[in-house]
Amino acid sequence: MAWNRKHWLALIFILTLTIRLIVAFSTPNFTYDSYFHLRQVEHITETGTPLFEDDLSYGGRELRFLPLFHYVMAFFDLFLPLTIVAKIIPNILIASLTLITYLITRRITKNDTAPLMSAFIAGFIPILFTPNAFTTDTLFLPLLFATIYAFMNLTREKFVYAYIGLFLATSVTSSSTFLLLIGFGIYLLLSKIENKRIKKEEAEVILFSLFFFVWLQFIFFKDVFLTQGSQFIWQNIPSQLLTQYFPQATIVTAIVSVSIIPFIAGIIVVYQSLFELKNTKAFLLISFVIATTILTWLTVIPFAFSLAFFSLVLAILFGMFYENVFNYIKKTKFTNKGTLLPILTVILLTLSMAIPVLSTAYSQEMPTQEEVDAFTWIDTSISANTTVVATLEEGHLVTFLSKKKNVMDTKFNLIPDTGKKLRDLNVLYTTAFQTQALEILHSHNAEYIVFTPQAKERFKKDQLPYLSPECFEPVYNKNVKIYKVKCIVRELE
To answer: What is the pLDDT of residue 222?
Structure first.
């Protein structure tokens, strides 16, 4: 039996999922930020509610976040161990982008093969190939593009209801949903400039989406708005880290993250659609390209997420590029060679994407097993209600694995003086002065400090220079070192 499009699409999905799962299960651990989400899912499974009042993070604080991702994962946690859920479900969700990309590309092209090419690219976008990441983006991106697909089909009543449901779910998953609204605004502007008629259904759902999103964000983040003002946009990230979260975008970075062939093809389609062919079919997708570019330039959305979203849009636009190339070949004397185009395209895509994909997959920032063992040892060997110092990235390991208070982690909202806290934390790993270190430890009520290979590499230190047997007792002395603080600094009266 000859293979049809459904068979090829199923193969792409299965291939994507299989490779992701092989990488995911080749190491038992997760990326650093994943441990925050693991803790939230665990808490929802046990209590039914998110951990908005956290006694361990920063020694005790309020948290505000959108919880749909955690509820979805908690549902699966009822039937499977959490570590298995965290490995399998996010990778199924990301692999589903191949199916959604296929549907969107099929909506804007007439070529049978073009949607399959877009699906293939979506399955192996380098920046998305992080199978050990248990984060909200693994649910948010499929929901976001499913919402876009529903928007493209609003003339059919069932898609109106589908859009409303998907937009509600997207809005309760991530605040980055505002990227969708900015894209809609640019879409309306482009349509007006090119005299493209705006459908009544489109105008109505855009207006509904705007009001609902603003209302929902106010409900969840009212305290953050009132406390931090405009800093809410930048998530109260310490100024020292802004260039890390919002680095300067470069073409080279974009090409490496997206892969060179989809990047060039997508840019060509954008240029032709806007300035040469005036192709209104791509206006919606081009609007998202423009929105992503503007918001990235303004450092409003995290760079990694903007590249992931940008990459998926370019994967879809590649389908239009493929269709244009195929139609051009049909008009030339090489028309009988058209059957070679799919094979040649797959070969070129594989050659251009394989190395970046493998590089990303095997360079994920994760704790080693010996680091995980050390933080787990803290849970069983150190008394409760203890504050443990670890690096910023390891803060969530302290709260999830060690079940102890940390000094700092990567959730900055509603935390005062995050810049000072980060300076204190860095000083503890760099200062040569014991008195200075003890003062900082005392100010944060810290009783233990963890020195991991990750800390060694980050701070370029083989050991903490201020350690002395009188003030710091080694209680865990393997490749990971854990020291108990025995001294305090007092002012003389």
So the answer is: 83
